[in-house]
Specification:
The chain has 573 residues and is of the alpha/beta class. It folds into three domains: 2-91, Ubiquitin-like (UB roll); 93-122 and 129-207, Alpha-Beta Plaits (2-Layer Sandwich), CATH 3.30.70.20; 211-572, Rossmann fold (3-Layer(aba) Sandwich). It is built from 19 helices and 16 strands. It has helices spanning 19-25, 77-92, 108-115, 152-160, 195-199, 211-220, 232-239, 249-259, 267-288, 300-309, 323-339, 356-360, 380-389, 411-414, 421-435, 473-485, 513-529, 539-549, 555-561, and strands at 2-6, 9-13, 51-52, 71-73, 140-142, 167-169, 176-178, 205-207, 223-228, 263-266, 294-295, 346-352, 376-379, 453-460, 463-471, 492-496. Strands 2-1-4-3 form a four-stranded mixed sheet, with helices on one face. It is globular, with a radius of gyration of 25 Å.
Protein backbone atom coordinates (compact mmCIF):
# COMPACT_ATOMS: atom_id res chain seq x y z
CA UNK A 1 0.00 0.00 0.00
CA UNK A 2 1.06 3.60 -0.66
CA UNK A 3 0.69 6.15 2.15
CA UNK A 4 -0.34 9.64 1.07
CA UNK A 5 -1.95 12.80 2.41
CA UNK A 6 -4.81 14.51 0.58
CA UNK A 7 -5.98 17.89 1.84
CA UNK A 8 -4.49 17.25 5.26
CA UNK A 9 -5.91 13.74 5.70
CA UNK A 10 -3.69 10.64 5.61
CA UNK A 11 -4.77 7.52 3.77
CA UNK A 12 -3.41 4.37 2.14
CA UNK A 13 -4.17 3.27 -1.41
CA UNK A 14 -2.95 0.44 -3.67
CA UNK A 15 0.17 1.00 -5.74
CA UNK A 16 -0.66 2.30 -9.21
CA UNK A 17 -3.64 4.35 -8.02
CA UNK A 18 -3.87 7.77 -9.65
CA UNK A 19 -4.38 10.94 -7.64
CA UNK A 20 -7.88 11.23 -9.10
CA UNK A 21 -8.78 7.69 -8.03
CA UNK A 22 -7.31 8.25 -4.57
CA UNK A 23 -9.32 11.43 -4.14
CA UNK A 24 -12.53 9.61 -5.11
CA UNK A 25 -11.81 6.98 -2.46
CA UNK A 26 -11.69 9.80 0.08
CA UNK A 27 -14.86 11.47 -1.31
CA UNK A 28 -12.79 14.43 -2.50
CA UNK A 29 -14.10 15.89 -5.76
CA UNK A 30 -11.58 16.90 -8.43
CA UNK A 31 -13.21 18.38 -11.56
CA UNK A 32 -12.63 16.67 -14.91
CA UNK A 33 -13.70 17.20 -18.52
CA UNK A 34 -11.78 14.89 -20.85
CA UNK A 35 -11.82 12.05 -18.31
CA UNK A 36 -14.44 9.30 -18.66
CA UNK A 37 -14.38 6.29 -16.34
CA UNK A 38 -14.93 3.83 -19.21
CA UNK A 39 -12.30 5.33 -21.51
CA UNK A 40 -8.53 5.62 -21.68
CA UNK A 41 -6.87 8.44 -19.76
CA UNK A 42 -6.23 11.44 -22.02
CA UNK A 43 -5.08 14.32 -19.75
CA UNK A 44 -5.72 16.90 -22.47
CA UNK A 45 -8.09 19.33 -20.74
CA UNK A 46 -5.85 19.78 -17.65
CA UNK A 47 -8.77 20.96 -15.52
CA UNK A 48 -7.91 18.29 -12.91
CA UNK A 49 -4.56 19.85 -11.91
CA UNK A 50 -3.55 19.56 -8.26
CA UNK A 51 -0.66 20.76 -6.11
CA UNK A 52 1.90 18.22 -4.92
CA UNK A 53 4.34 19.22 -2.20
CA UNK A 54 7.88 19.51 -3.56
CA UNK A 55 6.82 19.86 -7.21
CA UNK A 56 6.90 23.18 -9.07
CA UNK A 57 4.52 22.16 -11.86
CA UNK A 58 0.90 21.27 -11.14
CA UNK A 59 0.36 17.67 -12.29
CA UNK A 60 -2.92 16.37 -13.74
CA UNK A 61 -4.68 14.12 -11.25
CA UNK A 62 -6.17 11.77 -13.86
CA UNK A 63 -2.85 10.35 -15.07
CA UNK A 64 -0.44 10.90 -12.17
CA UNK A 65 0.10 7.84 -9.97
CA UNK A 66 0.54 8.39 -6.25
CA UNK A 67 3.92 7.76 -4.63
CA UNK A 68 4.96 7.01 -1.06
CA UNK A 69 4.59 10.02 1.24
CA UNK A 70 3.00 12.22 -1.43
CA UNK A 71 1.26 15.30 0.02
CA UNK A 72 -1.52 16.58 -2.27
CA UNK A 73 -3.64 19.70 -2.18
CA UNK A 74 -6.69 19.51 -4.44
CA UNK A 75 -8.12 22.98 -3.90
CA UNK A 76 -5.32 25.32 -2.79
CA UNK A 77 -5.38 28.96 -4.01
CA UNK A 78 -2.69 28.07 -6.54
CA UNK A 79 -4.79 25.17 -7.88
CA UNK A 80 -8.00 27.22 -8.06
CA UNK A 81 -6.18 30.02 -9.90
CA UNK A 82 -4.74 27.56 -12.41
CA UNK A 83 -8.08 25.86 -13.02
CA UNK A 84 -9.80 29.19 -13.59
CA UNK A 85 -7.14 30.18 -16.08
CA UNK A 86 -7.52 26.86 -17.91
CA UNK A 87 -11.27 27.27 -17.91
CA UNK A 88 -11.02 30.77 -19.35
CA UNK A 89 -8.88 29.42 -22.20
CA UNK A 90 -11.43 26.69 -22.89
CA UNK A 91 -14.37 29.10 -22.74
CA UNK A 92 -12.63 31.59 -25.04
CA UNK A 93 -13.23 29.21 -27.95
CA UNK A 94 -16.60 27.91 -26.75
CA UNK A 95 -19.81 29.56 -27.96
CA UNK A 96 -21.66 31.33 -25.16
CA UNK A 97 -25.25 30.47 -26.19
CA UNK A 98 -25.59 28.15 -23.22
CA UNK A 99 -29.25 28.95 -22.58
CA UNK A 100 -30.31 27.45 -25.91
CA UNK A 101 -27.83 24.57 -25.86
CA UNK A 102 -29.24 21.03 -25.83
CA UNK A 103 -26.94 20.24 -22.90
CA UNK A 104 -27.99 23.21 -20.78
CA UNK A 105 -28.33 21.89 -17.24
CA UNK A 106 -26.46 18.67 -17.97
CA UNK A 107 -23.30 20.12 -19.56
CA UNK A 108 -20.09 19.07 -17.80
CA UNK A 109 -18.32 22.26 -18.89
CA UNK A 110 -21.13 24.36 -17.50
CA UNK A 111 -21.01 22.42 -14.23
CA UNK A 112 -17.26 22.87 -13.78
CA UNK A 113 -17.46 26.57 -14.67
CA UNK A 114 -20.20 27.03 -12.09
CA UNK A 115 -18.20 25.19 -9.41
CA UNK A 116 -15.24 27.45 -10.16
CA UNK A 117 -17.46 30.53 -9.85
CA UNK A 118 -16.52 31.74 -13.34
CA UNK A 119 -18.47 34.96 -13.10
CA UNK A 120 -15.94 37.54 -14.30
CA UNK A 121 -15.49 38.56 -17.93
CA UNK A 122 -13.15 36.29 -19.85
CA UNK A 123 -9.71 37.86 -20.30
CA UNK A 124 -9.05 35.97 -23.51
CA UNK A 125 -10.59 37.03 -26.79
CA UNK A 126 -9.73 34.28 -29.24
CA UNK A 127 -11.12 34.03 -32.74
CA UNK A 128 -14.23 31.84 -32.81
CA UNK A 129 -14.16 28.65 -34.86
CA UNK A 130 -15.41 29.39 -38.36
CA UNK A 131 -17.54 26.25 -38.74
CA UNK A 132 -21.18 25.67 -39.56
CA UNK A 133 -23.50 23.50 -37.51
CA UNK A 134 -23.94 20.15 -39.28
CA UNK A 135 -27.58 19.06 -39.10
CA UNK A 136 -27.40 16.82 -42.17
CA UNK A 137 -27.82 13.56 -40.23
CA UNK A 138 -31.35 12.58 -39.18
CA UNK A 139 -29.88 11.33 -35.90
CA UNK A 140 -26.97 13.53 -34.79
CA UNK A 141 -26.13 17.25 -34.82
CA UNK A 142 -22.54 18.48 -34.77
CA UNK A 143 -21.73 21.99 -33.50
CA UNK A 144 -17.96 22.36 -33.34
CA UNK A 145 -18.21 25.87 -31.91
CA UNK A 146 -18.86 24.05 -28.64
CA UNK A 147 -16.15 21.39 -28.96
CA UNK A 148 -13.48 21.33 -26.21
CA UNK A 149 -11.29 18.77 -28.02
CA UNK A 150 -11.56 16.21 -25.22
CA UNK A 151 -11.28 13.32 -27.68
CA UNK A 152 -14.02 11.21 -26.12
CA UNK A 153 -16.06 10.98 -29.34
CA UNK A 154 -13.01 9.96 -31.37
CA UNK A 155 -12.18 7.18 -28.93
CA UNK A 156 -15.68 5.68 -28.81
CA UNK A 157 -16.08 5.87 -32.59
CA UNK A 158 -12.66 4.33 -33.24
CA UNK A 159 -11.87 2.00 -30.35
CA UNK A 160 -15.36 0.80 -29.40
CA UNK A 161 -17.25 0.94 -32.69
CA UNK A 162 -14.28 0.55 -35.05
CA UNK A 163 -15.59 3.12 -37.52
CA UNK A 164 -13.64 6.42 -37.16
CA UNK A 165 -15.97 8.74 -39.05
CA UNK A 166 -14.59 11.65 -37.01
CA UNK A 167 -11.06 12.55 -36.00
CA UNK A 168 -8.92 15.53 -35.07
CA UNK A 169 -7.78 17.68 -37.98
CA UNK A 170 -5.18 20.49 -38.12
CA UNK A 171 -2.92 21.46 -35.22
CA UNK A 172 -2.91 23.72 -32.18
CA UNK A 173 -5.33 26.62 -32.30
CA UNK A 174 -6.89 25.37 -35.56
CA UNK A 175 -7.67 21.83 -34.36
CA UNK A 176 -11.18 20.53 -35.05
CA UNK A 177 -12.92 17.18 -34.70
CA UNK A 178 -14.48 16.57 -38.11
CA UNK A 179 -15.44 13.89 -40.64
CA UNK A 180 -12.87 13.26 -43.39
CA UNK A 181 -12.46 15.45 -46.48
CA UNK A 182 -14.85 18.14 -45.27
CA UNK A 183 -17.87 15.84 -45.59
CA UNK A 184 -21.16 16.37 -43.82
CA UNK A 185 -21.97 13.58 -41.39
CA UNK A 186 -24.79 12.23 -43.57
CA UNK A 187 -22.31 11.61 -46.39
CA UNK A 188 -19.98 9.49 -44.26
CA UNK A 189 -20.16 5.86 -43.16
CA UNK A 190 -21.65 6.92 -39.80
CA UNK A 191 -24.18 4.32 -38.66
CA UNK A 192 -26.12 6.79 -36.42
CA UNK A 193 -25.50 4.78 -33.23
CA UNK A 194 -25.09 7.96 -31.16
CA UNK A 195 -22.30 6.64 -28.96
CA UNK A 196 -20.48 9.92 -29.64
CA UNK A 197 -23.50 11.75 -28.18
CA UNK A 198 -23.26 9.56 -25.09
CA UNK A 199 -19.70 10.59 -24.25
CA UNK A 200 -19.63 14.25 -25.39
CA UNK A 201 -19.34 16.35 -22.20
CA UNK A 202 -20.73 19.47 -23.86
CA UNK A 203 -23.22 20.23 -26.65
CA UNK A 204 -20.81 19.73 -29.52
CA UNK A 205 -22.49 16.45 -30.51
CA UNK A 206 -26.17 16.14 -29.72
CA UNK A 207 -29.36 14.34 -30.74
CA UNK A 208 -31.26 15.67 -33.76
CA UNK A 209 -34.31 17.03 -31.96
CA UNK A 210 -37.76 16.26 -33.43
CA UNK A 211 -39.96 17.47 -30.58
CA UNK A 212 -41.23 20.50 -32.51
CA UNK A 213 -42.54 18.15 -35.23
CA UNK A 214 -44.56 16.30 -32.59
CA UNK A 215 -45.98 19.55 -31.22
CA UNK A 216 -46.95 20.58 -34.76
CA UNK A 217 -48.79 17.30 -35.34
CA UNK A 218 -50.60 17.62 -32.00
CA UNK A 219 -51.57 21.20 -32.80
CA UNK A 220 -52.83 20.18 -36.25
CA UNK A 221 -55.30 17.79 -34.64
CA UNK A 222 -54.06 14.56 -36.22
CA UNK A 223 -54.44 11.27 -34.37
CA UNK A 224 -50.94 11.15 -32.90
CA UNK A 225 -50.26 7.60 -31.73
CA UNK A 226 -47.10 6.75 -29.79
CA UNK A 227 -45.32 3.47 -29.06
CA UNK A 228 -42.78 3.02 -26.26
CA UNK A 229 -39.77 0.72 -26.63
CA UNK A 230 -39.08 -1.99 -24.00
CA UNK A 231 -36.04 -0.29 -22.48
CA UNK A 232 -37.67 3.15 -22.17
CA UNK A 233 -39.49 2.21 -18.97
CA UNK A 234 -36.04 1.43 -17.54
CA UNK A 235 -34.12 4.53 -18.73
CA UNK A 236 -36.61 7.42 -18.91
CA UNK A 237 -36.67 8.12 -15.17
CA UNK A 238 -32.87 8.32 -15.16
CA UNK A 239 -33.08 11.21 -17.65
CA UNK A 240 -35.32 12.95 -15.12
CA UNK A 241 -32.85 12.56 -12.26
CA UNK A 242 -33.79 9.17 -10.80
CA UNK A 243 -31.31 6.43 -9.97
CA UNK A 244 -30.27 4.08 -12.81
CA UNK A 245 -32.59 1.08 -13.10
CA UNK A 246 -35.69 2.88 -11.80
CA UNK A 247 -38.78 1.51 -13.57
CA UNK A 248 -41.63 3.97 -14.14
CA UNK A 249 -43.84 2.39 -16.81
CA UNK A 250 -47.21 3.66 -15.58
CA UNK A 251 -45.95 7.19 -14.93
CA UNK A 252 -44.58 7.44 -18.47
CA UNK A 253 -47.89 6.29 -19.96
CA UNK A 254 -49.80 8.88 -17.92
CA UNK A 255 -47.31 11.62 -18.88
CA UNK A 256 -47.70 10.78 -22.58
CA UNK A 257 -51.47 11.10 -22.25
CA UNK A 258 -51.13 14.47 -20.53
CA UNK A 259 -48.90 15.69 -23.36
CA UNK A 260 -51.77 14.89 -25.73
CA UNK A 261 -51.13 11.61 -27.52
CA UNK A 262 -54.26 9.94 -28.91
CA UNK A 263 -53.19 6.40 -28.02
CA UNK A 264 -50.23 5.12 -25.99
CA UNK A 265 -49.03 1.67 -27.04
CA UNK A 266 -46.33 -0.70 -25.84
CA UNK A 267 -43.59 -1.77 -28.27
CA UNK A 268 -43.32 -4.92 -26.18
CA UNK A 269 -46.28 -6.04 -28.30
CA UNK A 270 -44.38 -5.61 -31.55
CA UNK A 271 -41.26 -7.16 -29.99
CA UNK A 272 -43.40 -10.26 -29.48
CA UNK A 273 -44.53 -9.93 -33.09
CA UNK A 274 -40.88 -9.74 -34.17
CA UNK A 275 -40.12 -12.98 -32.34
CA UNK A 276 -43.00 -14.74 -34.10
CA UNK A 277 -41.70 -13.70 -37.50
CA UNK A 278 -37.97 -13.94 -36.81
CA UNK A 279 -38.27 -17.23 -34.93
CA UNK A 280 -40.23 -18.85 -37.75
CA UNK A 281 -37.78 -17.46 -40.28
CA UNK A 282 -34.95 -19.14 -38.38
CA UNK A 283 -36.83 -22.46 -38.46
CA UNK A 284 -37.46 -22.02 -42.18
CA UNK A 285 -33.75 -21.44 -42.79
CA UNK A 286 -32.75 -24.40 -40.63
CA UNK A 287 -35.14 -26.72 -42.46
CA UNK A 288 -34.83 -25.32 -45.96
CA UNK A 289 -31.09 -25.04 -46.40
CA UNK A 290 -31.21 -21.24 -46.71
CA UNK A 291 -28.42 -18.83 -45.73
CA UNK A 292 -27.02 -19.48 -42.25
CA UNK A 293 -26.18 -18.17 -39.79
CA UNK A 294 -29.18 -15.88 -39.59
CA UNK A 295 -28.40 -12.58 -37.89
CA UNK A 296 -30.94 -10.39 -36.10
CA UNK A 297 -32.06 -7.18 -37.77
CA UNK A 298 -33.71 -5.33 -34.86
CA UNK A 299 -30.86 -2.83 -34.53
CA UNK A 300 -30.80 -0.24 -37.36
CA UNK A 301 -27.25 0.90 -36.59
CA UNK A 302 -26.02 -2.69 -36.93
CA UNK A 303 -28.03 -3.16 -40.14
CA UNK A 304 -26.51 -0.02 -41.66
CA UNK A 305 -23.05 -1.16 -40.55
CA UNK A 306 -23.56 -4.47 -42.34
CA UNK A 307 -24.86 -2.74 -45.47
CA UNK A 308 -21.89 -0.36 -45.47
CA UNK A 309 -18.93 -2.37 -44.23
CA UNK A 310 -19.99 -5.91 -45.16
CA UNK A 311 -22.61 -5.76 -47.93
CA UNK A 312 -21.73 -9.30 -48.98
CA UNK A 313 -23.21 -10.44 -45.64
CA UNK A 314 -26.68 -8.85 -45.95
CA UNK A 315 -28.14 -12.21 -46.97
CA UNK A 316 -27.44 -13.34 -43.42
CA UNK A 317 -29.70 -10.63 -41.99
CA UNK A 318 -33.19 -11.64 -40.94
CA UNK A 319 -35.75 -10.05 -43.25
CA UNK A 320 -37.95 -9.31 -40.23
CA UNK A 321 -38.36 -5.61 -39.57
CA UNK A 322 -37.51 -4.15 -36.18
CA UNK A 323 -40.31 -3.92 -33.58
CA UNK A 324 -40.55 -0.17 -34.25
CA UNK A 325 -41.19 -0.65 -37.95
CA UNK A 326 -43.52 -3.63 -37.51
CA UNK A 327 -45.60 -1.51 -35.17
CA UNK A 328 -45.64 1.33 -37.70
CA UNK A 329 -47.03 -1.01 -40.38
CA UNK A 330 -49.66 -2.39 -38.02
CA UNK A 331 -50.75 1.09 -36.90
CA UNK A 332 -51.32 2.32 -40.46
CA UNK A 333 -53.24 -0.86 -41.47
CA UNK A 334 -54.80 -3.08 -38.79
CA UNK A 335 -55.25 -0.31 -36.21
CA UNK A 336 -56.58 2.14 -38.82
CA UNK A 337 -59.19 -0.42 -39.90
CA UNK A 338 -60.29 -1.16 -36.32
CA UNK A 339 -60.56 2.54 -35.50
CA UNK A 340 -62.19 3.31 -38.87
CA UNK A 341 -59.53 5.94 -39.57
CA UNK A 342 -57.94 6.94 -42.83
CA UNK A 343 -54.22 6.13 -42.38
CA UNK A 344 -53.40 9.64 -43.59
CA UNK A 345 -55.10 10.96 -40.44
CA UNK A 346 -52.66 9.05 -38.21
CA UNK A 347 -49.26 10.32 -37.13
CA UNK A 348 -47.19 7.40 -35.85
CA UNK A 349 -44.57 8.35 -33.26
CA UNK A 350 -42.16 6.16 -31.33
CA UNK A 351 -40.04 6.85 -28.27
CA UNK A 352 -36.82 4.91 -28.43
CA UNK A 353 -33.46 4.57 -26.64
CA UNK A 354 -31.82 4.78 -30.06
CA UNK A 355 -30.67 7.63 -32.31
CA UNK A 356 -30.40 5.26 -35.30
CA UNK A 357 -34.17 4.75 -35.20
CA UNK A 358 -34.49 8.28 -36.58
CA UNK A 359 -32.60 7.08 -39.64
CA UNK A 360 -34.49 3.80 -39.83
CA UNK A 361 -37.96 5.35 -40.01
CA UNK A 362 -36.89 7.39 -43.05
CA UNK A 363 -35.60 4.40 -45.03
CA UNK A 364 -37.45 4.21 -48.36
CA UNK A 365 -38.18 0.52 -47.71
CA UNK A 366 -40.27 1.32 -44.63
CA UNK A 367 -43.60 2.20 -46.29
CA UNK A 368 -45.29 -1.16 -46.88
CA UNK A 369 -48.48 0.19 -45.34
CA UNK A 370 -48.72 2.60 -48.27
CA UNK A 371 -47.48 5.41 -46.03
CA UNK A 372 -44.31 6.12 -44.08
CA UNK A 373 -44.85 3.52 -41.37
CA UNK A 374 -43.31 5.55 -38.52
CA UNK A 375 -43.47 9.32 -38.97
CA UNK A 376 -41.40 10.65 -36.06
CA UNK A 377 -38.92 9.11 -33.64
CA UNK A 378 -38.21 10.64 -30.25
CA UNK A 379 -35.36 9.51 -28.03
CA UNK A 380 -35.59 9.04 -24.28
CA UNK A 381 -33.83 12.37 -23.73
CA UNK A 382 -36.26 14.21 -26.00
CA UNK A 383 -39.27 12.77 -24.19
CA UNK A 384 -37.75 13.73 -20.83
CA UNK A 385 -37.50 17.31 -22.10
CA UNK A 386 -41.12 17.24 -23.27
CA UNK A 387 -42.21 16.06 -19.82
CA UNK A 388 -40.32 18.95 -18.21
CA UNK A 389 -41.71 21.43 -20.76
CA UNK A 390 -45.25 20.27 -19.98
CA UNK A 391 -44.67 20.97 -16.29
CA UNK A 392 -45.60 17.42 -15.33
CA UNK A 393 -44.86 16.47 -11.72
CA UNK A 394 -43.38 13.11 -12.68
CA UNK A 395 -42.62 12.05 -9.12
CA UNK A 396 -46.24 12.38 -8.00
CA UNK A 397 -48.11 11.51 -11.19
CA UNK A 398 -50.25 8.38 -10.88
CA UNK A 399 -49.75 5.24 -12.95
CA UNK A 400 -51.77 4.62 -16.07
CA UNK A 401 -52.25 1.60 -18.33
CA UNK A 402 -51.33 1.25 -22.02
CA UNK A 403 -54.15 1.33 -24.54
CA UNK A 404 -55.34 -1.97 -25.98
CA UNK A 405 -55.05 -4.06 -28.09
CA UNK A 406 -51.35 -3.13 -28.27
CA UNK A 407 -50.72 -2.63 -24.58
CA UNK A 408 -49.68 -6.12 -23.57
CA UNK A 409 -46.20 -7.55 -24.04
CA UNK A 410 -44.41 -10.56 -22.66
CA UNK A 411 -41.29 -10.82 -20.54
CA UNK A 412 -39.54 -12.06 -23.66
CA UNK A 413 -40.30 -8.72 -25.30
CA UNK A 414 -39.15 -6.82 -22.22
CA UNK A 415 -35.65 -8.30 -22.31
CA UNK A 416 -35.13 -7.02 -25.88
CA UNK A 417 -33.55 -4.00 -24.19
CA UNK A 418 -30.42 -5.85 -23.01
CA UNK A 419 -27.74 -7.48 -25.13
CA UNK A 420 -28.68 -11.14 -25.50
CA UNK A 421 -32.35 -10.37 -24.90
CA UNK A 422 -33.54 -10.85 -28.48
CA UNK A 423 -31.70 -14.17 -28.63
CA UNK A 424 -33.21 -15.37 -25.35
CA UNK A 425 -36.69 -14.26 -26.38
CA UNK A 426 -36.39 -16.13 -29.67
CA UNK A 427 -35.11 -19.28 -27.99
CA UNK A 428 -38.06 -19.36 -25.60
CA UNK A 429 -40.45 -19.50 -28.56
CA UNK A 430 -38.37 -21.58 -30.98
CA UNK A 431 -37.81 -24.28 -28.34
CA UNK A 432 -41.52 -24.76 -27.69
CA UNK A 433 -42.51 -24.56 -31.37
CA UNK A 434 -39.94 -27.19 -32.37
CA UNK A 435 -40.26 -29.59 -29.44
CA UNK A 436 -43.95 -29.05 -28.67
CA UNK A 437 -42.87 -29.18 -25.03
CA UNK A 438 -43.25 -26.60 -22.29
CA UNK A 439 -39.98 -24.92 -21.42
CA UNK A 440 -39.59 -25.13 -17.65
CA UNK A 441 -36.56 -22.89 -17.21
CA UNK A 442 -37.03 -19.69 -19.22
CA UNK A 443 -33.73 -18.14 -18.17
CA UNK A 444 -31.00 -18.78 -20.75
CA UNK A 445 -28.16 -17.58 -18.55
CA UNK A 446 -25.45 -18.35 -21.13
CA UNK A 447 -26.65 -15.59 -23.46
CA UNK A 448 -26.80 -12.94 -20.72
CA UNK A 449 -24.09 -10.59 -19.48
CA UNK A 450 -21.75 -7.99 -20.93
CA UNK A 451 -19.14 -10.24 -22.51
CA UNK A 452 -18.31 -8.78 -25.92
CA UNK A 453 -18.98 -12.05 -27.77
CA UNK A 454 -20.86 -14.91 -26.10
CA UNK A 455 -21.76 -18.39 -27.33
CA UNK A 456 -24.32 -21.01 -26.34
CA UNK A 457 -25.84 -24.25 -27.61
CA UNK A 458 -29.50 -25.20 -27.30
CA UNK A 459 -30.83 -28.73 -27.76
CA UNK A 460 -34.13 -28.59 -29.64
CA UNK A 461 -35.24 -32.17 -29.02
CA UNK A 462 -32.19 -33.66 -30.68
CA UNK A 463 -31.28 -30.76 -32.97
CA UNK A 464 -28.49 -28.67 -31.47
CA UNK A 465 -28.65 -25.00 -32.41
CA UNK A 466 -25.49 -22.97 -31.85
CA UNK A 467 -25.97 -19.27 -31.16
CA UNK A 468 -23.76 -16.23 -30.59
CA UNK A 469 -24.30 -12.73 -29.23
CA UNK A 470 -22.18 -9.64 -29.89
CA UNK A 471 -22.59 -6.03 -28.84
CA UNK A 472 -20.48 -3.07 -29.91
CA UNK A 473 -19.60 -2.88 -33.60
CA UNK A 474 -15.94 -3.78 -33.13
CA UNK A 475 -17.15 -7.13 -31.78
CA UNK A 476 -19.60 -7.39 -34.68
CA UNK A 477 -16.69 -7.06 -37.08
CA UNK A 478 -14.93 -10.00 -35.41
CA UNK A 479 -18.02 -12.18 -35.86
CA UNK A 480 -18.37 -11.15 -39.51
CA UNK A 481 -14.74 -12.02 -40.16
CA UNK A 482 -15.33 -15.47 -38.62
CA UNK A 483 -18.29 -16.03 -40.94
CA UNK A 484 -16.32 -14.90 -43.97
CA UNK A 485 -13.42 -17.20 -43.08
CA UNK A 486 -15.79 -20.12 -42.52
CA UNK A 487 -14.55 -20.46 -38.94
CA UNK A 488 -17.92 -20.48 -37.19
CA UNK A 489 -20.77 -22.96 -37.19
CA UNK A 490 -23.40 -20.72 -35.62
CA UNK A 491 -27.01 -21.01 -36.71
CA UNK A 492 -28.30 -17.78 -35.16
CA UNK A 493 -26.48 -14.59 -34.13
CA UNK A 494 -27.72 -11.52 -32.28
CA UNK A 495 -25.83 -8.27 -32.88
CA UNK A 496 -26.50 -4.92 -31.22
CA UNK A 497 -24.48 -1.86 -32.20
CA UNK A 498 -24.48 -0.23 -28.80
CA UNK A 499 -22.48 -1.59 -25.84
CA UNK A 500 -24.97 -3.18 -23.48
CA UNK A 501 -27.71 -3.28 -26.11
CA UNK A 502 -30.63 -0.84 -26.20
CA UNK A 503 -30.12 0.11 -22.55
CA UNK A 504 -26.82 1.61 -23.82
CA UNK A 505 -28.43 3.34 -26.80
CA UNK A 506 -27.35 6.81 -27.87
CA UNK A 507 -30.73 8.35 -27.02
CA UNK A 508 -30.57 7.52 -23.30
CA UNK A 509 -29.01 9.53 -20.50
CA UNK A 510 -25.17 9.28 -20.60
CA UNK A 511 -24.02 5.91 -19.36
CA UNK A 512 -21.17 4.09 -17.70
CA UNK A 513 -20.80 0.33 -17.29
CA UNK A 514 -21.91 0.71 -13.66
CA UNK A 515 -25.15 2.36 -14.79
CA UNK A 516 -25.66 -0.27 -17.47
CA UNK A 517 -25.43 -3.00 -14.84
CA UNK A 518 -28.29 -1.37 -12.90
CA UNK A 519 -30.36 -1.01 -16.06
CA UNK A 520 -29.76 -4.64 -16.99
CA UNK A 521 -30.82 -5.85 -13.53
CA UNK A 522 -34.06 -3.90 -13.90
CA UNK A 523 -34.73 -5.44 -17.33
CA UNK A 524 -34.55 -9.01 -16.03
CA UNK A 525 -36.43 -8.13 -12.87
CA UNK A 526 -39.32 -6.83 -14.98
CA UNK A 527 -39.29 -10.02 -17.04
CA UNK A 528 -39.56 -12.15 -13.90
CA UNK A 529 -42.54 -10.12 -12.66
CA UNK A 530 -44.64 -10.28 -15.83
CA UNK A 531 -47.47 -12.85 -16.01
CA UNK A 532 -46.60 -13.81 -19.61
CA UNK A 533 -42.94 -14.52 -20.39
CA UNK A 534 -43.09 -16.06 -23.89
CA UNK A 535 -44.01 -14.16 -27.05
CA UNK A 536 -46.24 -16.89 -28.49
CA UNK A 537 -48.35 -16.88 -25.30
CA UNK A 538 -49.39 -13.23 -25.77
CA UNK A 539 -53.18 -13.37 -26.45
CA UNK A 540 -53.10 -10.18 -28.52
CA UNK A 541 -50.41 -11.68 -30.75
CA UNK A 542 -52.68 -14.65 -31.35
CA UNK A 543 -55.55 -12.25 -32.05
CA UNK A 544 -53.76 -10.18 -34.68
CA UNK A 545 -52.74 -13.30 -36.59
CA UNK A 546 -56.31 -14.66 -36.43
CA UNK A 547 -57.97 -11.39 -37.43
CA UNK A 548 -55.46 -9.85 -39.83
CA UNK A 549 -52.02 -11.31 -40.51
CA UNK A 550 -52.94 -14.95 -41.06
CA UNK A 551 -49.77 -16.76 -40.04
CA UNK A 552 -46.08 -16.01 -39.49
CA UNK A 553 -44.29 -15.64 -42.83
CA UNK A 554 -47.68 -15.67 -44.59
CA UNK A 555 -48.46 -13.42 -47.54
CA UNK A 556 -49.78 -10.44 -45.57
CA UNK A 557 -47.33 -10.72 -42.68
CA UNK A 558 -44.42 -10.99 -45.12
CA UNK A 559 -45.56 -7.87 -46.99
CA UNK A 560 -46.05 -5.75 -43.87
CA UNK A 561 -43.49 -7.12 -41.42
CA UNK A 562 -40.48 -7.99 -43.58
CA UNK A 563 -38.09 -5.94 -45.69
CA UNK A 564 -34.86 -6.07 -47.70
CA UNK A 565 -31.45 -4.43 -47.45
CA UNK A 566 -29.13 -2.59 -49.81
CA UNK A 567 -25.43 -2.09 -50.51
CA UNK A 568 -24.19 1.16 -48.94
CA UNK A 569 -20.48 0.55 -49.45
CA UNK A 570 -20.28 3.66 -51.66
CA UNK A 571 -20.27 5.64 -48.38
CA UNK A 572 -16.73 4.38 -47.80
CA UNK A 573 -15.42 6.07 -50.93
Amino acid sequence: MIHITIDGERTSVPEGTTILEAAKLMNVHIPTLCHHEDQAIKAVCRICVVEVEGQIQLPTACNTPVSEGMVIKTASPKVIKARKNIMELILSRHTQDCLICSKNGTCELQSVASDLNMSRRNRYELEARNVEVDESSPSIVRDMTKCILCGRCVEVCTDVQGITVMDKENRGYHTLVVPPYGKSLVDTACVNCGQCVQVCPVGAISIHDNTDEVYSELEAGRKVVIQMAPSVRITLAESLGYDPGTVTTGKIVHALRKIGFYKVFDSDFSADLTIMEEGNELLQRLNGGETLPMITSCCPAWVKYCETYAPDHVSHLSTAKSPQQMFGSVIKTYFAEKEQLDPSEICSVSVMPCTAKKFECKRSEMNDSGYQDVDIVLTVQELAKMIRTAGIDFENISDSEFDQPFGLGSGAAQIFGATGGVMEAALRTVYEVVTNKTLDNLDFEDVRGFGGIREASVDLDGTVVKVAIAHGLKNAKIVLEQIKAGNCDYHFIEIMACPGGCIGGGGNAPKTWKKLEKRKEAIYREDKNLPIRKSHDNPYIKQIYEEFLGEPLGERSHKLLHTHYIDRSDLLR
